[in-house]
Amino acid sequence: MTQYTVAALYKFTPFADFESWQEPIREKAHALDVCGSLLIASEGINGTIACPSDAGMGEMIAYLQAIPAIGELEVKYSHAETQPFKRMKVRLKEEIVRMGVPGIDPNRTVGTYVEPEDWNALISDPEALIIDTRNDFEFAMGTFQGAVDPETRTFREFPKWADEHIGPPGTRNAKKIAMFCTGGIRCEKATAYLKEQGHDDIYHLKGGILKYLETVPKEQSLWQGECFVFDERVGIKHGLELGEYISCHACGRGVSPEGQKSANYVPGVSCDYCIDEYTENDRERFRQRQLQLKLAKERGEVGMGPDARPETRRKTRDAEEA
């Protein structure tokens, strides 16, 4: 059985000619059977891709790192038994992670990186405020002990939350602020934002949750639950093993084993999170679409990859926030 190599990657870097690289990157990916999504912008590159061989992935990463503006990437590797993406997308963006605040540049100002091996000591410090910079549904699947949930639906809500709950420099009770996210990219912008506001003693987990789960033994871990990933694997556990959550193909959120037993969970139609978010007309459309996908799958015509989901996938579409 083919095992797919998955790479979550990013780098903040001045990328003035990023538009001219869209087609060359896409063509290289196609040549290597690489699927996934890459976002490129004047501030850098970000995304997750999968390849049916380690050698092919190595060639793809080497190609990206050879682009003069990019150089060495921050990459986290994992594996999947099936291709978690349906096709390859290279998108041009204003930001590689959408905060919506002009002038925030992690290339200029950023917090202090903390290696996964040193993270437990930091978040165990009673004088540290631990903030999960991910979205509310991601927090619900898993987080670090003692972490604060900003209850944001998108990363664009984080600056407002920080202004209201952390406040200006000199007014917070915590002496240190430690932040984390899936792969590290949201933390870079979040720490840059707080540093730009004048805060000191700002820290973030290098390589994000994925690197922590890969590096720190389960028996020493302070992580609880699963880490949501923006592809068909849905959730990752310690050692980057596949989790037990599945995806709600109506809203794209993760559904726990308990949630899968709920009366609100209808495959492709609804789950506990989105049962009240759509009209009955929406759900009927989802049912018909699910039926067509089921029939097509039985005929061997189509899989249930992320692009087989309804347009409501936009609720968790912020893969660039990882």
Mean pLDDT: 90
Relative helix content = 25-40%
Strand order of the largest sheet: 4-1-3-2-5
Question: How many helices in DSSP terms?
Answer: 8
**Helices and strands, in N-to-C order?**
EHEEHEEEHEHEHEHEHEEEEEH
Low-confidence stretches: 303-322
The geometry reads as globular
Organism: Ponticaulis profundi
Biased composition (Basic and acidic residues): 308-322
InterPro entries: Rhodanese-like_dom, Rhodanese-like_dom_sf, TrhO, TRHO_N
Family: Belongs to the TrhO family.
Put the structure in a nutshell.
With 322 residues, the protein is of the alpha/beta class. The protein has helices at residues 22-31, 54-65, 116-123, 136-141, 158-165, 185-196, 208-215, 280-298, and strands at residues 4-12, 35-41, 44-51, 74-80, 88-92, 112-114, 128-132, 142-144, 176-180, 202-205, 223-225, 227-228, 235-236, 246-247, 254-255.
